[in-house]
Specification:
By secondary structure, the protein is of the alpha+beta class. It folds into two domains: 3-118, 2-Layer Sandwich (D-amino Acid Aminotransferase, Chain A, domain 1); 126-278, D-amino Acid Aminotransferase, Chain A, domain 2. Helix content is 29%, strand content 29%. The strands form two sheets. Strands 2-1-6-5-3-4 form a six-stranded antiparallel beta sheet. The chain has a six-stranded mixed β-barrel with strand order 7-8-9-10-14-15. Strand 10 and strand 11 form a beta hairpin. The structure holds N-(5'-phosphopyridoxyl)-D-alanine.
Length: 289
């Protein structure tokens, strides 16, 4: 039985209840984070909490908890799964109103929820074969930098990919490839690693930032630069990144083979660097937390 945190209480996940007048339920009025925890330790926690603060500010909410309070909650939730790799899901909504009303009262008490679930690293076989992706017009709003729980467009886009036998939908807006339905985008062209710059078109991914950090630290040529649709289609390598899928090579886009149809040399290099970084980070964590 999995434990959850809801508004100051720890309780079995199956017993957690939110009133129907919660603005998260009625409007999707809230934000969230997904944080991988390796060996019981939340990975890149400061980065995730900083992004959470940005998302909250983006929807005009104050942080409901301090970093230390979040940390204590995660420690308790992870405690029953000693040493396991799990992902932490947290959600903050604007709270429960007196009636359904688009306008809100600033004094509402936010609803704060967290749970964990098993995390399964991507099947190593995918590192050898890669995955399929499709492209779709980005039908989301214009503040994709906010990690809002309002994910209907992302769900529909991801499902279109799954229905087409693909792992992800890569999104196109104004002639640019921006990110995936639930991942960031990298391409390799002429030996240079490219990813779109941060801005309202995409989520500032924590995995994205780590990939860039590792590339810079290892003198691999990389740039934050807009990726046009034609640059995407001519790429030698395409990858998608996220906290739960790490780095996944895309070897078929809209039914067309990418590069030579196999994950490329830069993917193998970065994947190795990413795994080494994770291993060293886990080994450096205190034994019991
Ligand atoms: N999603 N872009 C979008 C639209 C995302 O939903 C995600 C992650 C990312 C990658 O961000 P990060 O590297 O910080 O995980 C980019 C999570 C995993 C989710 O919604 O479940």
């Amino acid at each position: 039985m999995s434990l959850a945190y809801l508004n100051g209480e720890f309780l079995p996940l199956a017993a957690a209840r939110v009133p129907v007048l919660d603005r998260g339920f009625l409007f999707g009025d809230g934000v969230y984070e997904v944080i991988p925890a390796y060996g019981g330790h939340p990975f890149r926690l400061d980065h995730h909490l900083e992004r959470l603060a940005g998302s909250l500010a983006g929807i005009r909410m104050r942080p409901p908890l301090t970093a230390a309070e979040w940390q204590a909650i995660f420690r308790r939730l992870l405690q029953d799964h000693a040493g396991e790799d799990r992902s932490i899901y947290l959600q903050v909504t604007r709270g429960v109103g007196e009636r359904r009303d688009h306008g809100y009262d600033d004094r509402l008490v936010p609803t704060v929820f967290a749970m964990t679930s098993p995390i399964h690293p991507p099947d190593p076989a995918l590192g050898k074969t890669g995955v399929r992706a499709i492209t779709r017009h980005d039908i989301r709003w214009t503040r994709c930098d906010i990690k809002a729980i309002t994910l209907l467009a992302n769900l529909l886009l991801r499902q279109e990919a799954l229905d087409a036998g693909a792992a992800e939908a890569i999104l196109l807006r104004d002639g640019l490839a921006t990110e995936g339905a639930a991942s960031n985008l990298f391409v390799v062209r002429e030996g240079v690693l490219l990813t779109p710059p941060k801005g309202p078109r995409l989520l500032p991914g924590i995995t994205r930032d780590l990939v860039l950090e590792l590339a810079v630290a290892n003198d691999l040529p990389c740039r934050e630069e807009d990726i046009t649709e034609s640059a995407l289609r001519q790429a030698d390598e395409i990858w998608i990144t996220s906290s739960t899928r790490e780095i996944l090579p895309v070897t078929e886009l809209d039914g067309v083979i990418v590069g030579d149809g196999r994950p490329g040399p830069l993917y193998h290099r970065l994947h190795g660097l990413y795994q080494d970084y994770k291993r060293r980070w886990v080994a450096a964590q205190p034994a019991a937390s």
